[in-house]
Specification:
Layout lengths: L3 E5 L3 E4 L4 H12 L4 E4 L10 H14 L7 E7 L6 H9 L3 E6 L19 H10 L3 E3 L13 H16 L5 E3 L5 H8 L4 E5 L2 H4 L2 H5 L16 H11 L6 E3 L8 H4 L14 H11 L6 H13 L7 E6 L8 E2 L6 E2 L9 E5 L1
Parallel strand pairs: 2-3, 3-4, 4-5, 5-6, 6-7, 7-8, 8-9
Antiparallel strand pairs: 1-10, 10-13, 11-12
Helix pairs in contact: 3-4
Bound molecules: (4S)-2,6-dioxohexahydropyrimidine-4-carboxylic acid and zinc ion (ZN).
């Protein structure tokens, strides 16, 4: 018997589109299913000012295939020199939907991020006043802290102090990867937490057992199985704090399959099929729409999309192994299992 499910069109609350040739090649992979996405600002150089965000939004809109209905929701990259008034103006004009905080050195193109959190206090206070959300890459960079513990330590050392010092600041814990992240999110109000597709599928064994798999390397790095299970429980719970942010992050194969490979899994192409598979496994297909299409707009104060997509169960879906770009091929995330959910626009 064929099974099908119709849900509101999903949004991606954490996406890397890059620029130039890479942008042009990966954008259709997202717009095929998603109506809106929060666009990460970690370009080289980063998108720091309102003027830079406006120019980047124009480049994204220029790269959009004709008649495609897609809204990029822009973000600013927070630096220690960010001007609170520039942020407030970018928010007031409707240009930006959030500000992104990268601890300096935490991940790809984060060198201009924040080292001393006291130096961004003024910006954070202004954001709390105007209701502009802060998206956080939640890992400490202290070399003494083991990479598998960096998220849990960030919650204690950085996130919780920021939230206590800045009442009313709306924060998004991005791409949570641990039970600690899930527990903290559940304990808070005015807070969202995004979960990626790949962290629902892989644990650290997938990355390291039987040979190192560079296409499963991302940041925050995948953790133990108990953490993956906590993420699956959170994502499929229906709890409005948890929503999809794929962190789909294209790098060319040459940059992934290298002695010092880049972090990032490219999941834009097959995310919705994989999620339907996971939610079915968890007996939670009735909560897929909350995770992909309702909870995120709820947090950001936007209406859910009016248009629909249909997911239909059938033969195993055949995805391309890689997307060709003028910069080189980009490998599509391999979930390591057949997925049978086909996506069509309803
Ligand atoms: O895996 C990741 N890739 N994590 C990040 O935080 C950044 C991203 C990228 O930009 O490649
Ligand atoms: Zn990211």
């Amino acid at each position: 018997m064929s099974q099908s499910l119709t849900i509101r069109r999903p949004d991606d609350w954490h996406l890397h589109l890059r620029d130039g040739a890479m942008l042009r090649a990966v954008l259709p992979e997202t717009t095929r299913h998603f109506a809106r996405a929060i666009i990460m600002p970690n370009l080289v150089p980063p998108v720091v000012t309102g003027a830079q965000a406006a120019a980047y939004r124009d480049r994204i809109l220029d790269a959009l295939p004709d008649v495609v209905d897609f809204t990029p929701l822009m973000t600013l990259y927070l630096t220690e020199d960010t001007d609170p008034e520039d942020v407030a103006a970018a928010h007031a004009s409707g240009l930006v939907s959030a500000v992104k905080l990268y601890p300096a050195g935490a991940t790809t193109n984060s060198a201009s991020g924040v080292k001393d959190f006291d130096k961004v206090r003024g910006v954070l206070e202004r954001m709390a006043e105007i209701g502009l959300p802060l998206c956080l890459h939640g890992e400490v960079t202290d070399p003494e802290i083991d990479i598998f513990d960096r998220e849990a330590v960030f919650i204690d050392r950085v996130l919780d102090p920021i939230r206590r010092a800045t009442p009313g600041l709306r924060t998004v814990m991005e791409h949570i990867t641990t039970r600690d992240g899930v527990d903290y999110a559940r304990s808070q109000d005015d807070l969202g937490a995004t979960i990626t597709t790949h962290h629902l599928v892989i644990n650290r064994n997938h990355l390291l057992v039987g040979g190192i798999r560079p296409h499963y390397y991302c940041l925050p790095v995948a953790k133990r199985e108990e953490h993956r299970l906590a993420l699956r429980a959170a994502a499929t719970s229906g709890d409005a704090r948890f929503f999809l942010g794929t962190d789909s992050a294209p790098h060319t194969d040459a940059n992934k399959e290298s002695a010092c490979g880049c972090a990032g899994c490219f999941t834009a192409t097959n995310t919705m099929s994989i999620l339907a598979h996971i939610f079915e496994e968890e007996d939670a297909l009735d909560r897929l729409e909350a995770f992909t299409s309702l909870n995120g707009p709820g947090f950001y104060g936007l209406p859910p999309n009016e248009t629909l997509i249909r997911l239909t169960k059938g033969d195993a879906v055949v995805f391309p192994d890689r997307i060709n770009t003028e910069a080189g091929p980009v490998t599509v995330f391999d979930p390591g299992m057949p997925v049978h959910w086909h996506v069509s626009t309803a």
